[in-house]
Specification:
By secondary structure, the protein is an alpha/beta fold. The chain has one domain: TIM Barrel, CATH 3.20.20.370. Helices cover about 30% and strands about 20% of the residues. It is built from 12 helices and 17 strands. Strands 3, 4, 8, 12 and 13 form a 5-stranded parallel beta sheet that branches. Strand 14, helix 10 and strand 15 form a beta-alpha-beta unit. Helix 5 runs parallel beside helix 7 and helix 9 packs parallel to helix 10. It is globular. The structure holds zinc ion (ZN). Zinc ion binds next to loops.
């Protein structure tokens, strides 16, 4: 880990000044590079960035993409064999802060205990998944839409794997770096470092030092793990991000503010700031795409689609907004991850209600919820798949050890030295 330099401090002061002058949002802190040289990954580098090591000619990720040759992929994993699907939230970089020292209310700390993993727990889980023979596959390769005499419908593809490996899809929810997370011991955004690789910007909550790291963020930790274990990935696949849009994406405040009219005096500053965030996130998206990450929707506003009071009109507004503010940056997707795991109407395989039909009409084909197994069913009345994901987190580590033993043993993972004393069933 490299701490930020005087240059970083200077730029920080400049950014605070600019923020005070009216730039909205709290996310305009420039980024010190891993070689202490790169002020920001954006196009307007104000300082020369002499890298300590020359940028390598070849992409280190090439070794992952090409690790398995076609001749080695001799095991057919058919449509009736389960493709396991696990999802993670952002991991807690500073657990002592998150669970104990930070000033947020107790209920919030218990929420983190329920739904999040610490960095150390997450690292152990990745290692166990690898040791138990799982191999990462792209969710986009699991199902396809085909059209025949009966019309368009989804099919489960047969995956070709190396002998002895079991396919695994990973999804990462809410990789938006919400404001609350920045106060509770998480990293704050993904950036492209001076070496061309993805790094996480992080501010130590105790010292307020801002630095870049690859050791404290779920994304960069998986990047590192796959570089070290290229046989863990099939054709370079890693995971899919499930993104909302209401506080931007990947730590960049790219969202629009519809309540700010065109003639409002704050509009020009807001638009300029937003545009700079959009330009800054583009190279991050590009590098993530190059290294096996893909993108799906988690709705714009993290809305509860299964709520009794949810209206179709609100789903339409939310979806249009996601496509306009997020889809326009990350590219088209067919995959929707239900916030709160909450399905809209038409849960049944043969019965799709108006909300699901609308989401289908907007291009979504795979609708992922949360459950107790990696369930999936192809719908018969609509060209779509409904599926469930398992959730490695505090609740399942404490209370569902048996259900996850094929992936890892919670007794080896759960960090009771730092987590609050909230019990366990084993
Ligand atoms: Zn979520």
């Amino acid at each position: 880990m490299i701490r930020h330099t005087r240059l970083g401090a200077l730029l920080l002061a400049l950014a605070l000044f600019l923020t005070a002058c009216g730039a909205p949002g709290g996310e305009s802190v420039p980024t010190p590079g891993p070689g202490e040289t790169l002020p920001t990954p954006g196009p307007e580098e104000t300082a020369p960035a002499p890298t300590p090591e020359p940028t390598p000619e070849s992409d280190p990720y090439d070794a992952v993409r090409s690790y398995w040759t076609e001749a080695q992929l001799t095991q057919a994993w058919g449509p009736n064999q389960t493709v396991e699907h696990l999802f993670f939230h952002p991991v807690i970089a500073y657990p002592q802060w998150a669970f104990h020292d930070c000033p947020s209310p107790q209920s919030q700390k218990e929420g983190l205990d329920d739904w999040m993993l610490t960095v150390e727990e997450y690292k152990k889980i990745l290692n166990s998944l690898y040791e138990k023979g799982y191999i990462l596959v792209a969710i986009e390769d699991v199902w396809s839409e085909v059209t025949d005499e009966t019309g368009a419908h989804m099919v489960r593809n047969t995956l070709m794997l190396p002998e002895g490996k079991k396919p695994l899809v990973l999804s990462f929810d809410d990789v938006n770096y919400y404001d609350y997370m920045l106060e509770e011991g998480f990293t704050s955004r993904l950036v492209v470092g001076a070496d061309g690789q993805i790094w996480a910007q992080c501010t130590d909550p105790y010292t307020q030092e801002t630095f870049l790291t690859q050791d404290l963020d779920a994304t960069t930790l998986l990047d590192q793990f796959v570089l070290e274990h290229p046989d863990f990935s099939l054709n370079g696949a890693k995971a899919i991000f499930s993104l909302t849009g209401y506080q931007g994406i990947l730590g960049y405040r790219t969202q629009n503010d519809r309540d700010l009219p065109a003639g409002d005096p704050n509009r020009p500053a807001f638009d300029a700031f937003r545009q700079s965030e959009i330009e800054a996130v583009r190279p991050v998206i590009q590098r993530l795409r190059e290294t096996g990450w893909t993108f799906g929707s988690h709705t714009w506003g993290h809305i509860n689609l299964g709520s009794a009071t949810r209206t179709l009109a609100s789903v339409q507004t939310d979806t249009e907004r996601w496509l306009e503010e997020v889809g326009s940056l990350v590219g088209p997707t067919q995959i929707l991850f239900y916030p709160h795991g909450s399905r809209p109407d038409g849960d049944d395989v043969a019965q799709s209600g108006p909300m699901l039909q609308y989401l289908h009409s907007m291009g979504f084909r795979v609708f992922a919820s949360v459950g107790v197994e990696s369930y999936s069913k192809i719908k018969s009345d609509l060209s779509a798949v409904i599926c469930d994901r398992l959730h490695p987190d505090g609740t399942t580590l404490r209370w569902q050890r048996d259900r996850y033993l094929r992936f890892y043993d919670a007794a080896d993972i759960l960090d009771l030295a730092v987590r609050p004393d909230l019990g366990k069933s084993w």
